[in-house]
Task: structure prediction
Amino acid sequence: GNQGLVATLPVSVAAKRLGADEQDLARALAVSHLVTAWAKSFAGRLSALCGCGVAASAGAGAGVAVLHGGTAETIDAVVTNVVADLTGMICDGAKPGCAVKLSTAAASGVKAALLALNGVAVPCGNGIIGEELGATLAHLGRISHPGMTGTSREILHQLAEKQASR
Result:
């Protein structure tokens, strides 16, 4: 769905713009999807946190960074930058709203990659950013579950109310 679009399209567009060959594109897409899955493993499969915003955006940024020659350290910085940027974006199940969030997530991933490629990463101690990426993602997971459990219930309640009134 939309998370797959975010994890794929920015990387594909960047590869085309850079004139990357199929092998480089495949490697960048693999990194994008692996980072997306890794971030999702912390945030959870179903959460009030927007998966496009947190996980797929990080994956897209990582893939773009790989196309530009980024290292593992660059990828860490990309994910850190995305978490600093988009944590708190909620998933409310709204399909047109989701499409708008998709564009925000794609842009954030590319921005995070460009910052990281220029040596910029949000430092530890800013918001939920930890001393290393694993700690940052663990903090993200705690915000998602149990932190946003009440938010999830309220979103579902509002969606059910709208459905019942139709």
About this structure: The mean pLDDT is 93.
